[in-house]
Design a protein that fits this description.
The protein has helices at residues 5-16, 43-54, 71-94, 119-124, 131-140, 149-158, 174-183, 220-233, 246-249, and strands at residues 2-3, 23-24, 57-58, 64-65, 104-109, 162-170, 195-198, 236-243, 257-259, 266-267. It has 268 residues and is α/β, with parallel strands linked by helices.
């Protein structure tokens, strides 16, 4: 379940105030609960802090952009630098050592605010989520890449590491997701074997414990962990799992988790 800034303003404020550290193993903005008896931070001040963090700029066409020189971009660069070093080591270890059950090294990434940046949507809607507006925005396939992530993904591919995308977007949104990823520089396979979306009308058998053709009860963690388990069953070792939400990373089936910054919403 996705919650907007207005529902989760305090936890995002805590992250911006420096009480949490982004990166490997970090809890993320949604992991810090407000204390009883304390007034939450003023929502107007919080949005100004988020603007500053992203280096927000409103363009002539009304589009909001983040700055490549922002604190947000600097946090990303630090995480990506460490991840590249880890990927290189994993590729050297598992790409050539067949004593590890022959599993091929791979990484898996969320899409929204991990591969593709949604700050424009969040800022234009004043951080209020709406299904219809969000779906239309995704289908336009005009989101920019998250700073540095195409380079990280393409680096992994060149190291012989397979790349998978695992998103909460629905199956009907596949064409827009494919188009947007390709046009922003993700030079990796984007077929159905590498790009996993929620298929609620025809769910895969590996999610049978929480999904059938008539009922989808999977939580984000169940859906994503179950899919990672399936990927590993196909002969891969997930050496890295990238996401902007803690629910992207919880549930196992990856050697390391990389929490990217996102103070604008959280997904349970």
């Amino acid at each position: 379940m996705r919650k907007s800034l207005k529902a989760a303003g305090l936890t995002a404020a805590c992250a911006l105030a420096g009480t949490l550290v982004y990166g490997v193993g970090a809890a993320g903005a949604q992991g810090n609960a407000p204390q009883a008896g304390h007034e939450p931070q003023n929502i107007g001040l919080l949005t100004k802090q988020i603007d500053a963090y992203y280096g927000a700029e409103k363009q002539a066409d009304g589009t909001w952009t983040a700055s490549a020189d922002s604190d947000y971009a600097k946090d990303l660069a630090r995480i990506e630098k460490g991840a590249k070093a880890d990927i290189r080591k994993a590729a050297q270890r598992y790409g050539h050592d067949r004593h590890h059950h022959g599993a091929k090294p791979a990484i898996v990434l969320d899409i929204d605010d991990t591969a593709l940046l949604s700050f424009d949507y969040e800022r234009r809607t004043n951080y209020v989520y709406n299904d219809a507006a969000w779906n239309a925005y995704v289908d336009q396939a005009n989101r920019p890449a998250v700073f540095g992530m195409p380079e990280l993904v393409n680096y992994a591919r060149k190291q012989g590491v397979e790349v998978f995308f695992l998103t909460g977007l629905s199956e009907p949104q596949r064409p827009g997701a494919e188009k947007n990823l390709a046009k922003t520089g993700y030079d990796v396979p984007l077929d159905a074997k590498h790009l996993f979306l929620k298929n609620k009308t025809n769910p895969p058998s590996y999610l049978k414990n929480c999904a059938t053709a008539t009922s989808w009860t999977c939580t984000t963690v169940e859906y994503k962990a179950g899919t990672r388990k399936y990927i590993e069953s196909q002969g891969y070792r997930l050496v890295g799992n990238f996401g902007d939400q803690q629910s992207d990373l919880t549930g196992g089936y990856a050697d390391k988790g990389y929490k990217l910054p996102n103070p604008t919403y959280f997904v349970e």
